[in-house]
Amino acid sequence: MAQMTMIQAITDAMRTELKNDENVLVYGEDVGQNGGVFRATEGLQKEFGEDRVFDTPLAESGIGGMSIGLALTGFRPVPEIQFFGFVFEVMDAISGQMARYRYRSGGTRPMPITVRSPFGGGVHTPELHADSLEGLMAQQPGLRVVIPSNPYDAKGLLISSIRSNDPVIFLEHMKLYRSFRDEVPEEEYTVELDKATVKREGTDVTLVAYGAMVHSSLKAAEELEKEGISAEVIDLRTVSPVDYETILESVKKTNRAVVVQEAQKSAGIASAVAAEIQEKAILHLEAPVLRVAAPDTVYAFTQAEEVWLPNHNSIVEKVNAVMNF
Amino acid sequence: MKRTLENIENQFETFQILNEEGKIVNEDAMPDLSDEDLKEIMRRMVYTRILDQRSIALNRQGRLGFYAPTAGQEASQLGSQFALEKADFILPGYRDVPQLIWHGLPLYQAFLFSRGHFKGNQMPEGVNAVSPQIIIGAQITQAAGVGLGFKKRGENAVSITYTGDGGASQGDFYEGINFAGAFGAQSIFVVQNNRFAISVPVEKQSAAQTIAQKAVAAGIEGIQVDGMDVLAVYAATKEARQRAVDGEGPTLIETLTYRYGPHTMAGDDPTRYRTEDMDNEWEQKDPIVRFRKFLEEKGLWSEEEENELIEKTKEEIKAAVKEADNTPKQKVTDLMDIMYEELPSNLKEQREEYSEKESK
């Protein structure tokens, strides 16, 4: 076991798959010699050569379209979109094309592509570098959207994503890249896609979260415990498709749920999760399902960022509301 | 400051081998084609013209769905396809069904594509192509990727993609040719300049005098070809293919052509944006008329042979329509099954629901 940050675990996952499968290619803007602007691909070009780990011209749509072409010739591309706010430049290649290719071809042309990208707020970036746009991707049938919350999951989920024969949007929360270390096995292992995990068991309320909000939810749960409220925390890990089985099992036990996301209230996936809970478990509910989310403005300018982003206090507030309903 | 634009534009003269009268005007460029090859090219053009006429009729009868007429563009479409090898990969635009057929897509499947049945999009094993792209230009960046894939694998194969004059305005066009150049992709980009993007004339697409010259900015080869001259289109594509597999980079080919019919059969009325004079002027350049003259002169073609071919083609079309009619209808559950390698939980649940509905 080694102590790794999430970004080291991500690099390690790519290294593992570059070694395992000669069809794996890693590329993007500044990904080669520079090792990526966050150093996610540090050392990979040196280790695997320019043919397999390389820089591309600066054009996201080109990167997306090229990935499809490489997949059509049997490669397993792992392109990087430098910041997920740049996804608008590559929306057609992702949503209009790679998500639909297997379907369009009557099941004959799989797209084993993993699009990696940093996202999420709280790190004082310029505009369009910090949005939570997972909802846009989750609304596109044909894609999987995976968001790890810790180094161990990041490595196992990324390996599973790269091995998947369907396209995966793999979103890496920038605030988690280097915020803490975890025990991460040096050998290869996978974490199953489409499966949530219970991070903390509880009996009074279910907190459903993903990405950085898993940590805010855990912190909120600790505070709630002091007030005598026992919160269960679920980390979705894959946000499309959502593992409703795990959520419903928990809600049927706790009878209350709060869905937590960093994205704006009208974006993200919290609304879909809340809707599914009431469809499937309304008779188990003691209170409405509430959502913790950012307000429906464009992502906050940095000076208002800390107030704009949801945090453990906003979660505690909503939990109190469902407890006192 | 030295001005360069005029010098660049002067480089892009239209490449022609066979003129409108069916005479060879560029003997040096004459490709090495056997008499049988020449006849085969003619057969394919005639077949495709008849297919176009029948497809329009079938569409009007409600027996075909989406259809983009091809008449006028046979030399551009088939001359370029004839220069390909089986290993080459076609990424077509929405009008480029003929190339798919000659690359191996059975005709009844082309009809299924038109009717909106997914089986029309399933290329048979060994047919290196994808179904026609609907988003203008999206196929161009993908073609760069296929061409790069072939290069990485050291394969003797190229990707070829088709778009129109409107497609050459898309961002993906520039990104695609630029990526292909930067990576030395084994790719050919064909722009069939039929002068209109639905209704907007090419003059309104760009200040560039030719589309071929756009290659210069990407640092790749570019050529403008008489797109009504099947020999010129063939020769240009053949040469581009050779350069690509020899590691000399991708090529942009602009073919000057014209579509006689409407943009699609979904209500477009060309009289709103084209004059009869213009239609007549282009019909004088017809690719089949001039090639027929050329072959007749060589004693390789006769009216009798053509009529026989037309009858045979009509029979084949009839049989293909029947085969398309006999293909089982697709179900919503079929569509669910082709979304992912394995059904995810949400679709599993929805599949049960539809499976029950569809069994009734």
Automatic annotation (TrEMBL), chain A:
Its cofactor is thiamine diphosphate. The keyword Oxidoreductase applies. GO terms for molecular function: oxidoreductase activity. Residues 4-179 form the Transketolase-like pyrimidine-binding domain. Keywords: Oxidoreductase, Thiamine pyrophosphate. The keyword Oxidoreductase applies. Pfam families: Transket_pyr (PF02779), Transketolase_C (PF02780). Transmembrane segments: none annotated. This is Alpha-ketoacid dehydrogenase subunit beta. It comes from Halobacillus salinus. The lineage of its organism: Bacteria, Bacillati, Bacillota, Bacilli, Bacillales.
TrEMBL record, chain B:
One of its GO terms (molecular function) is pyruvate dehydrogenase (acetyl-transferring) activity. GO terms for biological process: branched-chain amino acid catabolic process. Residues 303-360 form a coiled coil. Its cofactor is thiamine diphosphate. Residues 42-332 form the Dehydrogenase E1 component domain. The keyword Transit peptide does not apply. Its EC number is 1.2.4.1. The keyword Cell inner membrane does not apply. Keywords: Coiled coil, Oxidoreductase, Pyruvate, Thiamine pyrophosphate. It catalyses: N(6)-[(R)-lipoyl]-L-lysyl-[protein] + pyruvate + H(+) = N(6)-[(R)-S(8)-acetyldihydrolipoyl]-L-lysyl-[protein] + CO2. Heterodimer of an alpha and a beta chain. The pyruvate dehydrogenase complex catalyzes the overall conversion of pyruvate to acetyl-CoA and CO(2). It contains multiple copies of three enzymatic components: pyruvate dehydrogenase (E1), dihydrolipoamide acetyltransferase (E2) and lipoamide dehydrogenase (E3). PANTHER family: 2-OXOISOVALERATE DEHYDROGENASE SUBUNIT ALPHA, MITOCHONDRIAL. This is Pyruvate dehydrogenase E1 component subunit alpha. It comes from Halobacillus salinus.
